Each structure stands twice: as structure tokens, then as C-alpha cells.
User: What shape does this take?
Amino acid sequence: MEDINIEDIMQKIRAEIKEKGLTDSELGFNSVVSASAGTGIEYSQSRYADVLDMADSDRMVMSYRDVYGNPLAKFIKKLNRRLIAFYIEAIVDDQNKYNSEIYNTLLMNYSRFNEEDARLSAIEKKLYESEKEIERLKSKIEELSK
Assistant: This one.
């Protein structure tokens, strides 16, 4: 089995990025689409919230619908419904439980995304401040070494 040196690979990637003249502002996760599971749809927090609102209104499935038609057709449809109600209602109940669990999972994801965004913003701010402090200290060291 071949040993893989990740650091060498990362150095090659960094060199390629420098060679192409890309900056950090040009690189982002939204610009990368996964080949295996990518839908090509970029994440948008507001769109995610809108989809959750739509899903909330549609998550409950009803086992009953109004019956239309002439009186004989209505009677036959109602009779058929009553004959298979025990079977259909169990399926609908299972589907409603599943929809509810999926919806709750999506809500947890949304909450987690918001928490991670806030945490990431705080980390990025600290990193930026640390880099500025490092540059300031480097310049001070250069001044003192002269």
C-alpha cells in the first residue's frame, strides 16, 4: 500500500493556487460542487428558511379527501374508503410520523447551521485580529533588530 503524504499534496495545491493568482476572497465552499452528491444548488440561509416554512405547511398528509361525482359514484367511493380505511390510515399515520421526524431533523440542521455560522464568524474575527497582531509584532521586531 502506498503511503500518502498529505502535506506534500497540500503544498502542491497551495503552489497551484499561487500560480493561478487566486486570493482567499475568490475561494469559497459555495463555488465547489461535490461530484458525488452535489445538486448544484448553493446554500442560502433565507432559501433554507423558506423551504422549511413550506415543508411545515405540507408535512401532514390527510387520508380523507372530498368525494365528487354523481350520487351513485359518491356512494361507491365512500364504501371503498370505509373498506380500506384500516389499511390506508395506518400508512398515513406512519407517513405523518416520518414527515414530522424529518421536519424536526431539518429544523435541528437549520439551528446548527446558524450556531456554526456565528461560531465561524467569531473564529474568523479572532484569526484576522491575530494576523494583524502578528504583522505588527513582526514589524516591531524588524525595527528593533535594525
